[in-house]
């Protein structure tokens, strides 16, 4: 059974840091790209970052470049999202998702499995 479980969310002040984890089971990271998405209050879900399975290439939405870093530990079957210099506009529910096409596209339909999400709140 394919499962993704996010953790690490919480309440942090502006300028603070958090590390989100996405633990996967039922498949290995060797063959899937993993993307992080977020849904802010009143907004549609958007792609934030993604890491490919083969070459480890990473992708970021413009608003988080230089502040967020995605990484993976294949041995632990876990993908991380390191978030620094957090801003109130980063407040959202963050989701990880598995992309069997290894495309790292922001098109959500390409991701076939999703986690339940973890809340990140950045206070001003």
Explain how this protein is built.
The protein is an all-beta fold and 124 residues long. 0% of the residues lie in helices and 49% in strands. The strands form two sheets. Strands 2, 4, 5, 6, 9, 10 and 11 form a seven-stranded mixed beta sheet that branches. The chain has a four-stranded antiparallel beta sheet with strand order 1-3-8-7, with no helix packed on it. A hairpin with a 6-residue loop joins strand 4 and strand 5. The radius of gyration is 13 Å and the shape is globular. The termini are far apart. 33% of the residues are buried.
Radius of gyration: 13 Å
Tell me, briefly, the overall form. Answer: globular
Biggest pleated-sheet summary = 7 strands, mixed
Structural class: mainly beta
Order of helices and strands: EEEEEEEEEEE
Distance between the termini: 40 Å
Unreliable stretches covering 5 or more consecutive residues: none
Helical fraction equals under 10%
Discrete helix count:
0
Could you tell me the strand content as a percent range?
Answer: over 45%
Topology of this protein?
Blueprint: E1 3-7, E2 10-13, E3 18-25, E4 33-39, E5 46-51, E6 58-60, E7 68-73, E8 78-83, E9 92-99, E10 113-114, E11 118-123
Parallel strand pairs: 2-11
Antiparallel strand pairs: 1-3, 3-8, 4-5, 4-9, 5-6, 7-8, 9-10, 9-11
């Amino acid at each position: 059974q394919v499962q993704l479980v996010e953790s690490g969310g919480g309440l942090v002040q502006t300028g603070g840091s958090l590390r989100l984890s996405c633990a996967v089971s039922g498949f290995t990271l060797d063959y899937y790209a993993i993307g992080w998405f977020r849904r802010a209050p009143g907004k549609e879900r958007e792609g934030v970052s993604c890491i490919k399975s083969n070459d480890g290439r990473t992708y970021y939405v413009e608003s988080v470049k230089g502040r967020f870093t995605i990484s993976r530990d294949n041995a632990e079957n876990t993908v991380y999202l390191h978030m620094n210099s957090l801003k109130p506009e980063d407040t959202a529910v963050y989701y990880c998702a598995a992309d069997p096409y290894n495309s790292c596209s922001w098109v959500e339909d390409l991701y076939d499995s999703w986690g339940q999400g973890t809340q990140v709140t950045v206070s001003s």
